[in-house]
Amino acid sequence: MLIQEMISSGDFLPNMVGIVGAFSLQGVGIATAIVAATGLFIGVFLGFAAKTFEVKADEREVRVRELLPGANCGGCGYPGCDGLASAIARGDAPANACPVANKESHKLIAEVMGTSVEETEKMVAFVKCVGTCDKTEVKYEYYGVQDCNKAAVVPGKGNKKCSYGCMGFGSCVRVCAFDAIHIVNGIAVVDKEKCTGCSTCTAQCPNKLIDMVPAAARHLVGCSSLDKGKDVKAACSAGCIACKLCVKACEFDAIHVDNNIAYIDYSKCTNCGKCATVCPVKVIQVQQA
């Protein structure tokens, strides 16, 4: 009867609109309350979980990380400076494990760890090849990807006649974070002043031409060819021919020829220079200390 009266009086639609509006507002309020309650619950739960499962940071690790240079070069053998800081804090790595950090930083890290720093000789990278464009013969023109590792799979390892030497495409240059190595006249050359000894470049050379040597070393063999003298001379005018004149000239038993190539034992070398003087092909490089 009430509905019929409302319909007959013309008040049905306005009243229904008001009723529906009231229910809609009530629904919105309930939904808002549920969302707010859920958010509050999640917030409280996450806060509780964070406290319960919190991993206490080692203060020493944090302090060591602040003292590391942040180069993230991997030269220490760990995944970046964070990995090394963690290893030092655990006692798995020495305070001077970072090859990039200077002696002062090593000393401060040792103080944090309550240890001492063992003095070590600075090492730098050296490219065992002096076969510049004017000294080495080429077999063909190479138009491939300018990358040593890519060129290494080409027959003969690139276009140079010596398959042991530097290909000169700069893979080592691209990985050096310190601008310490450049391609000069077809071969990679290391700037000793900029080199930090991180050794990242050594892993990039497919011919394994880059060695870490003492920064104080003044005489270095710039060749890696294992071929016999005749074949070496046919490929490069600056290759070691294994004549052993350097061995005979050395009074300190610091240089030997093994597998057709001369090697220097830097623990015995006195930098007298006699080996470089007698070398007929001038493959023993003399560098400033």
Report on the structure:
This protein has 289 residues and is α+β, with helices and mostly antiparallel strands. It has two domains: 59-113, Orthogonal Bundle (3-methyladenine DNA Glycosylase II, Chain A, domain 3), CATH 1.10.15.40; 123-286, Alpha-Beta Plaits (2-Layer Sandwich). Helix content is 38%, strand content 11%. Helix 3 packs across helix 4 and helix 3 (59-67) runs antiparallel to helix 5. The relative contact order is 0.10. The mean pLDDT is 86.
Q: What's the gist of this structure?
A:
The chain has 289 residues and is of the alpha+beta class.
Identify the notable features of this structure and list them briefly.
289 residues, alpha+beta, 3-methyladenine DNA Glycosylase II, Chain A, domain 3, Alpha-Beta Plaits, 2 domains, two-stranded antiparallel sheet, 11 helices, 8 strands, 11% strand
Q: Secondary-structure blueprint of this entry?
A:
Elements: H1 2-9, H2 12-52, H3 59-67, H4 80-90, H5 103-113, E1 123-127, H6 148-151, H7 171-175, E2 181-184, E3 187-190, H8 200-204, E4 210-214, E5 219-221, H9 229-235, H10 245-249, E6 255-258, E7 261-264, H11 274-278, E8 284-286
Antiparallel strand pairs: 1-4, 2-3, 5-8, 6-7
Helix pairs in contact: 3-4, 3-5
Provide the structure class.
alpha+beta
Order of helices and strands: HHHHHEHHEEHEEHHEEHE
Fraction in beta strands: 5-15%
Q: Which CATH-level-2 architecture of the largest domain?
A: 2-Layer Sandwich
How much helical structure, as a percent, in the residues? Answer: 25-40%
Largest beta sheet: strand ordering: 1-4
Question: Averaging pLDDT over every residue, what do you get?
Answer: 86
Count of alpha/pi helices? 11
